[in-house]
Prior knowledge:
Elements: H1 3-10, H2 13-36, H3 39-46, E1 53-55, E2 58-59, H4 60-104
Antiparallel strand pairs: 1-2
Helix pairs in contact: 1-4, 2-4
Amino acid sequence: MRKDDARAVVETAAFQRLVGRKRAFLAACFVFVSLFFLPLPVLTSFTTLLNGPVVGALNWAHIYSFSQFAAAGIVALLYWTVARRFDRLARQAREEASGSEGRSG
């Protein structure tokens, strides 16, 4: 892709929508990961909050850490779904850019 082609894609409305939606999605993911995944090492290292038994030798730290596997899978599935929309917007941006080049050239 030439530099002029890339500039044309960046200037399209579809690309601007793509950037906005990606930023919003990634910001939401960052907040979720920060609030859900990062407390586990803090809570297990510096507190005894998760040491309480649940069933047998299983304690709350185990439950919390196992739930993170499920959460990681859900986040991956969510990204996989949203990425298809991002791909459509990227395709639209390329099509808009190639259409505008044909009119101006």
